[in-house]
Amino acid sequence: MTSKLHITTLAILLLGVMAVHSQTLRDQEQRVVKSNPNKDKEKKGEARAKAKRGIRVWTINDASGLSDSVAVDTTSHAFQNTTFTTGTKGFYNSLGNLGSPRKSKLYSLRPEMTDYIFIQPYDFFIKDINTFHFTNTYSPITNITYHECGDSDNGEDHLVAKYATNINKDAGIGFNIDYIYGRGYYDNQSTADFGFNLYGSIIKDRYKAHMLIFANYIKTHENGGITDDEYVKNPQKFPTNYTTKEIPTNLSKAWNKMHVNGIQFNHRYSVGYEKKKTSNNKVVTSVKTDSTQKKQTNVPPGAISARELEKDEMQSRTGDLAKVQTKDSSVFIPVSSIIHTLRIGANSRKFLANQSLANFYTNNYLDCDSVSEHFDNVLISNYLGLELSEGLNKYLSAGIRLFAKHDFNNYKMPGQQTRDNFTENRFSVGAQIFREKSSLLNYLLTAQTSSDGDSWGEYELRGQGVLSVKLLKDTVNLTLRASSINKKPTFYYRHYQSNYLWWSNNLSKQLSNNAGVTLESRRLALRLRGDIYNITNYTYFKTAIQNGAEGKHTINTEVAQASKNISVFAIALDKDFRYGILNWENSIIWQTTNSKEILPLPVITAYTNLYLKFRIAKVLKTEVGADLSYFTKYYADTYSPALGLYANQPTEDLIKVGGHPIISVYANFHLKHTRFYLMASHLNYNKEGGTTFGAPHYPVNPFVIRFGVSWNYFNYELTTSNIWQL
Known about the structure:
Number of domains: 2
Distance between the termini: 45 Å
Shape: globular
Helix content: under 10%
Strand content: over 45%
Radius of gyration: 27 Å
CATH superfamily of the largest domain: TonB-dependent receptor, beta-barrel domain
Number of strands: 35
């Protein structure tokens, strides 16, 4: 009932937004009619047809304040998998329920250490700021997406709503709402997540600004896993046939609650000069017309080429897409820029237990039977950069960027008497050399050093180059990357205080070296990637078991550093095939490590998707198919509820998970503004036993029918002619 009430409330709010949207469209139509006095008698439909159309979507790079264009998400392909916490291809382990904490099976997808590490298991829901999508649209756009499965006892609901509009041709605003409610197929497993983003942008020649305000709330009911895996593996051993909700769990009255709130403001001011444009719209210079307009070597599906996009933008700003500008104009050429980014974050986590966990955790440092632990973090980060643009003359083909950064972090944790307070200040300076406009070779080289005053010698060296070669009728991209990062483990690895877990560690710096290569061919639908990692003083969480009376055992979690270098070698292959309406997508990843007990990884992780793609009655785009995800057995990380993070399994009780494919069948449909699907998930689930686990003692969800719909509301259909970029 609570979930349905929440969804109903959100639906009412969204209807209000749509009403405002509709009024905005009507106002726009009226403006179009008024702007054409000779056609005042036109019908409303004809006026709407003349309204400006188009949308552009991009992300922001903190270091440059520049935009990276991204494709508009309007396709139905793989829509059925976008709601899975395990990822569209099943590359993540999770606790089973929608929105539950997760960890990647692939080492290449695991994030680097962050200051507030409790966010990392929820990266499905809390997106990285640098991947947030800003928009600029000629007409207001509303999107509502809804996924559902199960019933009132075990079902899952996922609602996403997006709204975007423009204030004028340069400024745009919008907001996103993300709501998850998973009741859980196992007892004491529910999740409730709510996220809200409000954003705006100003894009001018000399000045560009972006603001993002975000507020996220996460509530996870912790059950500690089922008490005996045999309930799932061999249910015949028990005299009673248990449903998933009837299987006993280790915890019943424990929760993790987290708030992740903040604001980010990024702006960039450029100085430069004007260059005249000829009558055929060509700039009288060899320099690219705008530093934000990067050469697109790979145009995403549904988009058009960078040259066509630039042409369409210039034409659309005149209000007439059918005519080419003929009169001379000028374009701004940036020479140097100053960049500033301010980020303020207010994060908090609460671990609540209205029961004694003495039979689950070994230690009781604060001598509490029930706990309410608060872990707060305030972050204030300032980034200042100075940039000299690339391509200004033949002697300076690359761009140069110098930057300085200051991070202030305040941490509060439970103490013996009162909450203890910790403060860290970190200063960083660095430089970048970049080339982004070449049709042949683009690269980014970064060197940075930082210190918190107590630890010197920290550094980051990163480099990436992309070579684009035209071969026959194809463009082959070869990407080379390398990095060397030597940094002290972040705060919570060094200090942590709670009733059940407590440590204060003097840890050595962790040195991580990586070298990799990626080969891509769009025509062959082929992507091959290889990576080598070598880590000195690898820092991780581990668990240990202490045996007690009457066969009971308890768990302790702590931080450890590997005494030897850890090496990882990985090869990933993506290859798609197409013959008529038959399509076959494949991804396979092979990984090996020299220390499976410290850094466990599945040797093989694979995903395959076989489907038919066709149209019904020439208008209904349809995909009907089946997909399969699989990973080989390995000692996957266990989950610590009191910490809210994953940790290595105890060596006293190692359990392998995996070796069980998950097969699903689906049908996707796309009709103009609407996408929807019907899916039979985990079709091969066997209630008689033998199912797999997402993490030790956390079974994957059983067979279930899923449904989802996504509806775009605007006064035109997105096509290649009106999807445009910066």
